[in-house]
Structures are given as C-alpha cells and as structure tokens.
C-alpha cells in the first residue's frame, strides 16, 4: 500500500483554488469540466473564480484566496506583470501555485502550456504543404496576446521559408463578439482580394467567423481554412458538408484541466514537479474527422489518444488516491 | 362652432383635499351653470388650483362629490373629466402642450387617445387645423412647433382645443396673468361668445377688475374654505374684504418722496435680436422706472439684455457714469444690477431646494470660510432676516420652494437680491399671479428698495405702472414710443401708445 | 441663399457625408462599389439597426433602455439552447424567445412604472439579470451542436441542433436570379422593421401618442392618452426588437455564444442619438437611427477593404462620429 | 410609528441589507469576517468608487458621462506606455496621464457646451475616441515589460518597465504593524477622494452651485452662477477621476491591458444611480455612490468565498440590485 501524504488523509481539507481569466466559451467550459472531474476523483475541494477578462478582478481573486489561505492556486491565463507579485506573495505564504498558459519566471511554479510555438508551426506548415508553397492567404490574427504572438512568430518563419506564400490581407479584431465581427470583416476582405484562396486563423473564434463568411458567400470551393484550437463546436463546423475548414491544431482542454488540478495536488502533497509541463498539440484534419465519423471531442479523443489524458504528473500516491475514491 | 342646446349644472359638493400637513381644500361647494361665468377668487394658496385640479380629474382621490345635473360623476383621471365635457386652461399652459409637436398635432392630441382612425395624414391634419383655427378666429400657424409659440398663442391653442371638444364646462385658471390688456380684451370677447353658446365657465383671476367685466357670480376662497358667495358681482372692496383677513386700504402705497439722486444706470441704443431695436434711457437713484407695453413689445428682452442674460447685438451701458461691459449675469451682479425674472418657476427658483438655499444663492460667498466651506449658521440667519423682510408665508425657510404658493415664491426670488446692495433692481412682471395682499407687500418692498437704489419695473399691467412708478416708458415693437412722468401718466394715453393708436 | 445652404447642410449634411464616404471608398477599392457589397453592408448593420430602433422607441417616450445588448445576447442563448439542449422545434424556440423578450420588456416597465425606479437604473438591473441568465442557462458554455448538456448530471452529449429553417433567418437569400445572389433575409427583416416602425411612428395616431408622451408626459396624460400603456409598449417593443435582433444574430452565427449581444448596446444608443441629432428633425426617428447604423457599417466595410489596421478603426469611427456631430451642430448653432 | 419605520427603512434599508449580507457571509464562510478581508473588499471596490464618483459629478449637473470607462482604460494604456515604450519617469507619466484626462474632460465640455451636442451623444463620441486611442497607442498590443516597441520600425524590444514607486499606488500598504498587513494604498486614495468630494459637494458653496446647476440651470444662471464653468468643471472632474482610477488600475495590474477600463462604465453608472435612489436623499451623492460600490464588492467577495459557480454570480448581482431597488422604491411609493 502506498503511503499518502499527511494532508491527503482527509483530502476534503485540501483546498485548491482555480482562478481563470475567462470562463465563457466551449474551450474554457471543457477545461473547467476537466478540472472538476479530476478534483472529484481525488476528493479534494476545488474553489473556482472567473474574472471575465478583467485583470484587476483576477488580481483581487488571487488576493482573496491568499486571505483565505487555500493550499494551492491554479492560475489560468492572465498576464504576468499583474499576477507575478501576487504569485510571489502566495508562494511566500506557503501556498502552491500552478499556471496554465501564463509565463512565470519563478522556479517554484510549474507552468502548464500548450506549446504555442509548435501550434503555430504545425498549422502554418500544413498550409504551406497543402498549397505546395504557393497561396494567397488572408491572415486572421491580432497582436498583444501572448499565445497569439507566439503562433505569429512561426507564421513569419514559414513565410520566410516559402516565398510563394503571400499574406494578401490581415484582418481580425478582438471584441465582445469576435466571431461575428470577424465574419463581417471577412466578407469585405474576400471581395477586396478575390485572388485569396486560403485563410489562416490563429484562434478558433477567428476561424468560426471566417468559415461562416465563406460558406454564406458560397465560396467553399475557393478557400481552405486553417486554424488553431479544437472544440466540439469547431468539430461540428469542420465536418459540415462543404466546410472549407480543413485543418486545425490543438489540445484537449479537458485533459489540461485535469492535469492542472493534478499538478496542484501533487505540489500540495510535497511532490517536486518539472518547471515546464508542455502539452503537445495535435494536428487534426477535416479528412480525419470525416473518415472516423467524429462529431465531438470525446469521440476525437478516442480516435486520437494522443489528445487524451496526459501521462504527466502521476505519482504513485495520486494514482492510489483516485483508486481509493473510486470505491 | 359647436353648440349645446341643453342647460347643465356642474356642482361640487363638500369638496376637500388633504396634503401631508395641509388641508388645501376644506368642504367647498361650488356650482357652475351653463351660460354663466362663475368667478373664483382668493389669495395665493387659498386652494383655487386645487379645486380646479379636482374638477379636472387630476387627483385620483378627493373627498366630497361632483355632480352634473344631479347625476354623480366620478373624476379620477383627466379622461373622466374630458368625457364629461369639462375642460381646463391651466395657469401654466405649458403643462398642457407638447412642445416638440406641431400646433395641428397638439390641437388633436385627445384624438390620438381615442379610437377614431389609426392612420393620420399630416397634410389632412394641417388642412383641418387651419380650417378649425380660422373658424374660431385664432391666427396661429398650424405647422409651427409649439415650442416656438408665444405664451398667449399657446393659451389660444388650448382654448381652441377645448372648443373643438364641444366643451360644456370650461375652467380658466388665471388666463390673463400673462396677457396684455388688448389680448385680455380679446379673451373677454371670447368668453362672451362661449357664454352665448351655453358653455359654463369657471373663471379664476387675481385681477379683480376683470371680474366685474366678465363674471356673473363670484365665490371667494380663503385658506381652503369658502369665504363668501355673491350671486351678482359686488363692489370690489367687498371681494377683497372676503379674501383677506384684514380690511384693505389702497393697493398702491403712497410714495412720499419724489426726489432723485444722480444717474445710476444709462442705456444707449440697446439692440437685441430683432426684439429690441435701439432702446435708450437712464434712471437715477431713488427712482422707480416702469416699462410697459403689450406682450411681445420687448420688455423682457430689454431687461435680460441689460442683465447679460441674453447677448445684446449693440448698445452701451453706463453705471454711475462709467461704461461697463456686461456679457453674463455674473458681470451684471458684480456691477450691482440684479434681475427678478418673469417666469419664476422656470427661471427663478430651484424648485426642489429649500427656500434658504434659493435665497442665499447669489451671495453665498459672503458666508463661506476656508476653502469655500459654508458657515451654516450665518447662512441661516441671513436667509431668515431676508425672509422676514419680505414676510414669507409660511415662515419656514427649510421648506422646498415648490411647496410655496405663487406669491410667496415670488417673494423668495425678490428677497435673494436684498442680500446684496442693489444699485439697480430689474423686476419683470413681479406681481404676475400674486394676490392683492402679497401684491401690496411687494409694492412696499419696491418702494423701500428704491430709497437706496434705482428700480426698473417691466409690467404689462398699466395700472401698476401708473400706480407706483415715477416715470413710465411705453414700448412697442422693441422701441420706446413714449415717456411719461407720474404727474401726467394716464392709463388711456399709455394704452393708445402701446397699441400704436397714438404715435 | 446662405440660409438655404445652411438648411440644406443641416438636413442633408450626414447624407452628403455618407455619399462622400461611398464615393471615396468606391474609388479607392476594387470591390466596394457593387450590388453584392451593398447588400453585405446592409446585412452587416441589420442586427444593429433592429436593436437600435428598439432603443429609439424608449428614447421617443423620453426614457432609456440600456438592457438591449444583454437582451439580444439572452435571445441568442435562449433560442439556441431551446433548440440544441432541449430539442424543441425551431418555430417554438422563436416564439419562446419572443415571449421571453416580451417578459423582459414587461419587467422593465414594471420596475419603471410601478416601482418608479429611474429608467436608466431599472434597465441596468435588467441588463445584469439578462446577462446572468445567459450564463446560467449554459453554465458558461456556448451553445452548439454536439455540446454536452450542461443540465444533465451525466453530462451526456445533446442530440439537438439548429435546423436549416432557423439558419435561413440570418443566412438565407430571397429573390435570387441567375446573375444576382439575392437579397439577404436579414436585410429584408431589417427593412420590414424600419418600414413598420416608421409607419407606426410617423403616420398613425399611436406614433403621435408615443411622441406626445415623450414630449410632455403631463400634457399627454391630461389629454387622456393612456401614458402608462404607451410607456409600457415602448419598453416592450424595445425588448422585443432586441430579441428579434438576437434571433437574427443567433441564426447568423449558427450557434449561441455567451455575451454576443453586448457590443450592440453602445452602438445602438449611438445610432439613435446620431439620427436624432443630425437629420435636422430634432427628435428620435426611425430613418435617422437607420442612417446612423448604415454610416458606421459603410465605414467599417470600407476601412476593412482598404486594409486599415483594426486597431485604428475604432479611433477613426470615433473621429468621424465626433466630427460629423461637431460640424452639424456647429452649423445649427450658427443658423440660430 | 409606522411612518417612522418607513422612514427608517427608506434611509437605512440598503445599509440594513448590507449588514445582513455581511452577517450572513461571516457566518457561512471562514475567512469573510477578518480585517484583512475587509480591506480586501475595499481595495477591490476602490477603482470603481473613484470612477463612479466622477460619474456622480456629471449626474449632479444633470448630465451624463459615459466616456469614463474608456477614459479609465486610456489612462491605463497611456501611463504605462509612457513608462514602458517611451521610458519616461513614473511621476511624469502620472502627470502626463492626468493632463490627458483633463484634456478629455475639456473635449467633452467643448462638445457639450460649445457645440451643444447632447451629453450622452458627445461622451459616446469621446468613448469611441478614447477606446480607439488606447488601441492605437499600442497598435492593439498590451503594454508590458519586454514588449516589442510598436512604434519602432525595427520592432525592437523596449527597455522600459514600470517602477516600484508606481506599483505602490495600487499594490502598496501603509500603517503596517507586526500583526497587521497594513491599509492598502488604493483604499487610502479612495477614502481621500470620497472625503474630498463629499466635503466639496455638501459643505462648500461650490457644491451648492453644482447642485443648483443640476436643479435648474436657467435659474442658477440668472442667480449669477457661472453655469458653464461649473458644467465644464463637472466633466473635467469626471474625466480626471476616471484617469485617477485608471492610474490605480494600471498600478494594480502592473501592466497595460487594452480596454481594461470598459467594465467600469456600467458598474459606475449603476453605483451612482443606486446611491442616488436608495439612500433617501433623492439626489446623486458621494456616500450613496460609495455604498453602491461597496454593496457590489461585498456580494462578489462573499459569493466567491461561498464557492458559488461563476456563471450565476452575475445573475445574483442583478437579482440583488433589482430587489434592493424594488423594495426601497416600493416602500417609498407607499409612504407617499
Ligand atoms: N402637491 C402638494 N403637496 C403639498 N401641498 C400642496 C400641494 N399642492 C398644493 N399644496 C398646498 O395647498 C394650498 C393650496 O394651493 P393652490 O395651488 O390650490 O392655491 P391657489 O389658490 O391656486 O394659489 P395661487 O393663486 O398662488 O395659484 C397651498 O398652501 C399649497 O402650498
Ligand atoms: N425666440 C423666440 N421665438 C418665439 N417667441 C419668442 C421668442 N422669444 C420670446 N418669444 C415670445 O415673444 C414674447 C416676447 O417678447 P418679450 O418677452 O421681450 O416681450 P415682453 O414685452 O416682455 O412681453 P411679456 O408681456 O410676454 O413679458 C414673449 O411672450 C415670448 O414668449
Ligand atoms: Mg393657482
Ligand atoms: Mg415679459
């Protein structure tokens, strides 16, 4: 029998806080569901708070959890400058911290990250290869968001590598209704650049808008859309008849949510974790989805196990704990 | 014009209305008969408007009953009153009109509430309005927006509207308080016509001389009670006696001193929009100068231009012989020129603030300590002493301005300027809508102020000008057409100058 | 002569500016001047116009309804959730959403008329409520085919979907011919709303009554106009049009995104006041509101075609709005 | 007796509700009732309070300033950009931001007073402008240490950073003792703003004049109050306080996020009207606004501690707002 850490003799008393920058949308919903399922399996208490994109509110929430003296805090997205001081404060008070998609220059904090450089590379490369190095691309992306910037870096490299790949227009705006706005802008861009034949959208919200614009204009034959992130909603749009959305690259946020809670629990149990917990993204093509009759994330994970449960952070006692709670 | 053959009687029995702390109307009976003009008089705050509001369905609760031809009618909403043929022209007509709509649209406002016709054609509306207005004899442009009309045009519009509704009982609440004599006479003509058409009229006025002209019977209210009823119009002194607690002597106080100091204010060639076309005059210390004329003659504009409230296009203003530049009321006040504006509710008072705050507003600086902190005690004392000077009733300076009666509201506005040292006090229709008692007090006040400074009084009541002024200017079309001194002032002459009969 | 000029500018200043914009964009881009793009622009502003006309009604009765954006978003979530999560036929979902919209309008008028809460405050309360409901219904998720049912403890995948008929509302075309793509359905809906409300407000006694209530509520009351009914109607119409806008939006994006309606609030208020202020009518009016929405739509479309970076589009929008207003008010001021 | 009760409820109803909330949260969570948490809550509402008091000024003069949220966001971006992109000392950045705030306030009053654009419309225009400027300054990026300089054609990495002194504004503490963390600096700033504006509005002739202008502008003018100056002052104060709020926000988040100020608009307006309506004062007032902000802060803090799902917190916020208003207005209505 494996020896459980002292704190986990009664796991209910282990309180893990989850602070998220945003909660709206299927990606984050699935992420939360994953985190909750892991917490349930471990029997720990998960406290959650969502900042609706408001950085000051996120800071306040972390402060609140510090005041409440939780055992660990998972910080999901957000910006380093505002959150760093709070993370340090938490660490100094003996609270463990794990981050997801947030760069923290402190060795005590393991960072979970979907490898955005790789994401950017995989999808850009796929586009270049599909078009044999010659395409007129409408690029949908904005600056100022760390993951989007990382993906952009790789796109620049691909353009440098394949001079025949041309960026004929750049659109995109992050607003309250990004998808609908992108749709409107895409309509205009398509008309202005009739030579365009590919769309590279570095975020699935952008892709949704672009795909809708293309389909509603009846130009599915003319365009191929490449994007990032995968959710059930995205899968549904990809498998539609005539969908121009041919490929996407992403991870399963459900698995990431589980990993985050597990990592936090492991830290509380005294485990040493590596600094970087990189979740490897997978390329998903329309063809693959259609061939395997995939209609949602669960089916996708089954068909593409690499997307599924991460094998990171599984110390013996955590496994034992889940087994124990199953009974 | 519609015609109603059958005679009818509108009767209010035992009407009472209570407000928190005030019994505004206390068991009052009143009877309005078709084809008769029933005058309702009383001091400010006697309850006249309250009675009117009951009869027009303004309040959803009141005590007592209302009958028409001995049939009880229930008046809970304006609609009930309209249904029973009761119409009103309010003291403040603006409450009855929609300023952003046209004359035509306002004329048929009630129709929009009813069921006849869903689609409204603008052109038909205009045609119909033009016809109806010319039938009645009111020359109002049918397509003008109401916000651009003059006060008396608005009044005509409301009366016209009532006539279109085949009104049985028409209530006129101080209809002449802002009309000139000529316009008032037109109104009397109209009242006569209405009488001939068997409309029953309740006529409310502070101008008692009118009562003799138009009324058949008179009811006097005092403190919410019926103080007297006269089947025929009696001598005015009798009415006044019933209105007021104390017997009344002469309305216009005697001015003993007619000696004036040096010139305080001189105005040269003042021009303003196209309403004031080159006005020049001067006043001396101790002098009361009246400016009179018909409505729209430009009196208000003249005073406002001097005060800097509207911009003058041309003209020079000298105070104590020195030319000064006045571009805003702030400048005027600095030079000791103060204005009591014509429309006290709109321009004079901050209605939801206490009398104290309204009184001390222009000279608040004098009661402030470090960082502009108001020294409350000093402020209160100051406000009290001024309120005492004008004999504010009720003497409660913490009461909100809107809960004072019209006359007392006027006193609040006047009293605020007594806190400074006026060199020139400009008064625009200071006694409009004010009862005889309060009127007299205001006249006394004017004479008192005039001892130390000059007073300019704009008034369309010629009697008032003759009664109190040392010198009278008559205005017409933005120009001064005559100047008379108190010795040779005479109402008839003034009237004919004002009307342009005499040049 | 000069007066005439001023008057013309006052009345047609914005239209002139619009024409100038259109000419400019037509000359400087390839695709701007075409029938298809014309309808694209109209389609892009259709939702905004519908919502903004609702706001116009609340402003006509001298009130203000700031809950419209949240109500639009609520309609998006509610209608799609009915179809996807609860698998209810599309027409019932539409009726359900419209009824819910009426309910929200009635709640607004209850708060404003019965409890006498100031309109801005009351509709702010409703705004928070409608926003909260949006998220509650889906527990924060978006609504899409194949989502896990947030209300199912087993978290099973829903079988519902948004059918073609519903999607036609936002994505369909009518009057197709061989050379012509057809007129987008949202444009038809928008034009219907514009024409009906225009007729209602300008040519019927109801319209006069609405304006009378807004111009002087006391006078309207004294004239026997049932002012409470009209004010209630205005808030109900406002919520109803916001809901209609939400339905078009839901159909246009083919799924239910949380808070999708939020951006419409400010733009709708801006369109209403823009139209109010600029057409020289000096009162809130349907065509003015429509024009305000189109103005913004033309600008965004043209700027995108010019490949203007997105981060200065907002600034340009603000600049044009302020200068259009500034000029038109400066002219009016001089003419006084 | 009954009247007394009603009066009490009217005056102290919201305070009572607040106390009930506090007691409830204290009993049902471990950490709610502590000095640290008390200051946490105050710190959480400090920015909102500062911004909302600005709005209160505009409402006092019977106007409305909807640009505050965008101005707050502009101050965040502008101050941090000055420090990070252009490497300017922090105190100059603060002064620069405040001057820019004054500039925006003056622009608002120019549009409203000189050009006579209706206040809602004018400030909406400024809203778009300030929002656009935010994005333009950074070309859509956020401002953070080590960002690439958006204005450098070489796109080099900036060397600027936000110094400790600036961060103290939002993150520091004063009056530390051994057992006590200290009072957060934003709370001190907020209390200063509350006390100063309260003194200004309630006890000085300037405050009297502000209220007079709001009560009846024509009467105030004819009584010799320079109404234009006061209205200008109100809009400048509003923009200035929004800027101050933005500076605290920038310091609190230690970086510049685009549109960070947007959420404050609705909450600030709600606080202002809430305080206006509920305290029984029947006019916009500083303490009421403060109380409105605290009310929301207590609720959000307590709900999070109770681990209420995030997606129903907005709904509860709306529900509490509407019921608090409903009850308090229902009572008032009865007392009439
Ligand atoms: N809504 C109200 N609340 C409290 N008191 C009121 C209200 N309306 C009128 N009053 C009071 O009732 C009394 C009668 O007022 P009313 O307006 O009927 O007088 P009036 O005879 O028309 O006076 P005036 O000649 O000045 O118009 C006054 O004391 C007034 O202060
Ligand atoms: N801009 C305007 N447009 C239309 N009518 C106006 C305008 N300004 C004033 N009036 C109306 O014209 C009349 C104006 O003139 P003014 O006020 O100078 O004359 P007055 O001699 O003081 O008349 P009153 O006896 O009404 O005080 C007023 O009754 C007012 O309602
Ligand atoms: Mg009266
Ligand atoms: Mg006058």
From TrEMBL, chain B:
Question: Which residues are in coiled coils?
Answer: none
Q: Which InterPro entries match?
A: AAA+_ATPase, ABC_carbohydrate_import_ATPase, ABC_transporter-like_ATP-bd, ABC_transporter-like_CS, P-loop_NTPase
- Provide the ABC transporter domain boundaries: 10-248, 259-502
Listed A to Z, the keywords are: ATP-binding, Cell membrane, Membrane, Nucleotide-binding, Repeat, Sugar transport, Translocase, Transport
- Keyword presence, Cell membrane: yes
Q: Which domain of life is it from?
A: Bacteria
Instruction: Cite the GO molecular-function annotations of the record.
Output: ATP binding; ATP hydrolysis activity
What PANTHER family would the database entry show? CARBOHYDRATE TRANSPORT ATP-BINDING PROTEIN MG119-RELATED, D-ALLOSE IMPORT ATP-BINDING PROTEIN ALSA-RELATED
The name under which this protein is listed is ABC transporter related
UniProtKB/TrEMBL annotation, chains C, D:
Residues spanning the membrane: 12-35, 41-61, 68-86, 92-113, 120-137, 183-201, 232-251, 263-281, 286-304, 310-331
What's any one GO cellular component for it? plasma membrane
One MF term in GO for this entry?
hydrolase activity
Q: Which UniProt keywords apply?
A: Cell membrane, Hydrolase, Membrane, Transmembrane, Transmembrane helix
Broad class of enzyme this protein falls into = hydrolase
Lipid bilayer topology: Multi-pass membrane protein
The listed locations are:
Cell membrane
Residue span of the signal peptide, if any? none
Q: List its EC numbers.
A: 3.6.3.17
- PANTHER family the UniProt entry points to: ABC TRANSPORTER PERMEASE PROTEIN YPHD-RELATED-RELATED (PTHR32196), RIBOSE IMPORT PERMEASE PROTEIN RBSC (PTHR32196:SF72)
The protein's name is Monosaccharide-transporting ATPase
Taxon lineage? Bacteria, Thermotogati, Thermotogota, Thermotogae, Thermotogales
């Amino acid at each position: 029998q494996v020896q459980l850490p002292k704190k986990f003799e009664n796991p209910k008393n282990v309180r893990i806080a989850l602070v998220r920058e945003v909660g709206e949308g299927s990606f984050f919903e699935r992420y939360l569901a994953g985190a909750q399922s892991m917490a349930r399996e471990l029997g720990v208490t998960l406290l959650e708070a969502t900042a609706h994109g408001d950085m000051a509110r996120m800071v306040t929430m972390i402060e609140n959890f510090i005041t409440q003296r939780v055992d660990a805090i998972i910080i999901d997205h957000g910006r380093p400058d505002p959150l760093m001081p709070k993370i340090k404060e938490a660490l100094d008070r003996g609270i463990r911290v794990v981050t997801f998609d947030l760069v923290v220059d402190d060795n005590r904090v393991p960072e979970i990250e979907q490898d955005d450089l790789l994401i950017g590379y995989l999808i850009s490369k796929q586009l270049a290869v599909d078009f044999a190095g010659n395409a007129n691309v409408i690029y949908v992306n904005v600056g100022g968001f760390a993951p989007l910037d990382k993906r952009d870096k790789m796109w620049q490299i691909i353009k440098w590598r394949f001079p025949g790949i041309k960026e004929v227009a750049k659109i995109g705006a992050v607003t309250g209704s990004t998808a609908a706005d992108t749709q409107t802008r895409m309509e205009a861009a398509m008309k202005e650049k009739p030579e365009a034949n590919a769309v590279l959208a570095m975020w699935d919200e952008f892709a949704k808008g672009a795909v809708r614009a293309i389909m509603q204009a009846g130009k599915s034959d003319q365009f191929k859309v490449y994007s990032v992130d995968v959710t059930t909603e995205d899968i549904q749009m990809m498998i539609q008849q005539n969908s121009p959305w041919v490929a996407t690259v992403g991870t399963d946020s459900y698995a990431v949510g589980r990993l985050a809670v597990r990592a936090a629990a492991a830290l509380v149990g005294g485990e040493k974790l590596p600094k970087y917990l990189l979740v490897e993204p997978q390329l998903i093509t329309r063809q693959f989805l259609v061939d395997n009759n995939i209609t949602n994330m669960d089916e996708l994970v089954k068909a593409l196990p690499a997307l599924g449960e991460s094998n990171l952070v599984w110390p013996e006692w955590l496994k034992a704990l889940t087994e124990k709670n199953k009974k | 014009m519609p015609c109603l053959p059958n005679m009818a009687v509108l009767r209010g029995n035992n009407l009472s209305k209570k407000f928190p702390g005030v019994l505004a109307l206390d068991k009052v009976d009143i009877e309005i008969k078709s084809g008769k003009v029933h005058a309702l008089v009383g001091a400010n705050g006697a309850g006249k408007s309250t009675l009117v509001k009951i009869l027009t369905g303004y309040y959803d609760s009141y005590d007592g009953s209302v009958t028409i031809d001995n049939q009880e009618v229930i008046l809970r909403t304006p609609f009930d009153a309209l249904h029973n043929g009761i119409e009103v022209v309010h003291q403040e007509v603006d409450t009855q009109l929609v300023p952003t709509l046209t004359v035509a649209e306002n004329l048929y406002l009630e129709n929009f509430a009813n069921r006849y016709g869903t689609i409204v054609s603008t052109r038909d509306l205009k045609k119909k309005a033009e016809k109806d207005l010319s039938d009645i004899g009111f020359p109002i442009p049918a397509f003008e927006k109401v916000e651009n009309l003059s006060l008396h045009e608005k009044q005509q519009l409301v009366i016209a509207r009532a006539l279109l509704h085949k009104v049985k009982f028409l209530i006129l609440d101080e209809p002449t308080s802002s009309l000139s004599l000529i316009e008032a006479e037109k109104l009397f003509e109209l009242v006569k016509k209405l009488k001939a058409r068997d409309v029953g009229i309740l006529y409310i006025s502070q101008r008692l001389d009118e009562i003799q002209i138009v009324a058949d019977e008179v009811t006097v209210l005092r403190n919410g009670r019926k103080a007297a009823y006269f089947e025929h119009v009696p001598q005015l002194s009798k009415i006044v006696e019933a209105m007021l607690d104390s017997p009344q002597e002469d309305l216009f106080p005697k001015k003993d001193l007619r000696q004036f100091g040096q010139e305080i204010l001189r105005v040269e060639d003042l021009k303003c929009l196209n309403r004031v076309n080159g006005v020049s005059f001067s006043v001396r210390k101790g002098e009361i100068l009246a400016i009179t004329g018909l409505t729209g003659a430009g009196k208000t504009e003249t005073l406002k231009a001097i005060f800097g409230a509207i911009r003058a296009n041309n003209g020079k203003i000298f105070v104590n012989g020195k030319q000064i530049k006045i571009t805003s009321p702030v400048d005027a006040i600095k030079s000791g020129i103060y204005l009591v504006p014509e429309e006290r509710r709109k321009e004079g008072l901050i209605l939801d603030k206490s009398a104290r705050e309204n009184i001390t507003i222009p000279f608040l600086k004098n009661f402030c300590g470090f960082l502009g902190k108001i020294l409350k005690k000093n402020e209160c004392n100051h406000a009290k002493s001024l309120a005492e000077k004008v004999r504010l009733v009720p003497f409660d300076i913490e009461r909100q301005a809107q809960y004072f009666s019209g006359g007392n509201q006027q006193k609040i506005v006047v009293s605020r300027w007594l806190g400074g040292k006026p060199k020139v006090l400009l008064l625009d229709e200071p006694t409009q809508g004010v009862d005889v008692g309060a009127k007299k007090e205001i006249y006394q006040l004017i004479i008192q102020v005039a001892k130390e400074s000059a007073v300019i009084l704009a008034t369309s009541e010629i009697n008032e000008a003759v009664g109190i002024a040392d010198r009278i200017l008559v205005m017409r079309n933005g120009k001064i057409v005559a100047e008379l001194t108190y010795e040779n002032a005479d109402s008839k002459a003034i009237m004919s100058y004002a009307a342009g009969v005499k040049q | 002569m000069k007066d005439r000029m001023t008057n013309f500018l006052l009345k047609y200043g914005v239209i002139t500016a619009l024409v100038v914009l259109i000419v400019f964009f037509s000359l400087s881009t390839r695709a701007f001047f075409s029938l298809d793009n014309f309808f694209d622009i109209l389609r892009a502003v259709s939702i905004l116009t519908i919502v903004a006309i609702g706001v116009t009604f609340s402003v006509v009765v001298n009130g203000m309804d700031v809950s419209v954006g949240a109500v639009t978003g609520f309609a998006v979530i509610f209608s799609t959730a009915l179809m996807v999560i609860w698998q209810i036929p599309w027409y019932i979902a539409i009726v359900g959403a419209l009824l819910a919209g009426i309910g929200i309008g009635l709640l607004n008028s209850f708060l404003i008329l019965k409890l006498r809460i100031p309109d801005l405050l009351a509709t702010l309360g409703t705004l928070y409520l409608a926003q909260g409901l949006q998220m509650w219904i889906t527990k924060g998720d978006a609504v899409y085919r194949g989502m896990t049912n947030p209300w199912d403890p087993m978290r099973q995948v829903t079988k519902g979907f948004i059918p073609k008929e519903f999607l036609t509302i936002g994505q369909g075309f009518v009057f197709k011919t061989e050379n012509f793509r057809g007129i987008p359905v949202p444009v038809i809906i928008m034009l219907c709303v514009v024409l009906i409300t225009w007729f209602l407000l300008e040519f019927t006694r109801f319209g006069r009554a609405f304006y009378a209530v807004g111009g002087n509520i006391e006078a309207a009351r004294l004239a026997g106009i049932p002012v409470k009914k009209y004010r209630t109607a205005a808030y109900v119409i406002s919520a109803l049009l916001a809901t209609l806008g939400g339905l078009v939006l839901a159909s246009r994006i083919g799924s239910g995104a949380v808070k999708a309606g939020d951006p419409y609030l400010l733009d709708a208020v801006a369109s209403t006041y823009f139209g109010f202020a600029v057409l020289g009518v000096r009162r809130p009016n349907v065509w003015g509101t429509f024009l305000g929405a189109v103005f913004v739509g033309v600008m965004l479309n043209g700027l995108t075609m010019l490949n203007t970076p997105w981060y200065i589009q907002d600034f340009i929008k603000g600049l044009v709005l302020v200068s259009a207003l500034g000029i038109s008010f400066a002219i009016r001021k001089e003419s006084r």
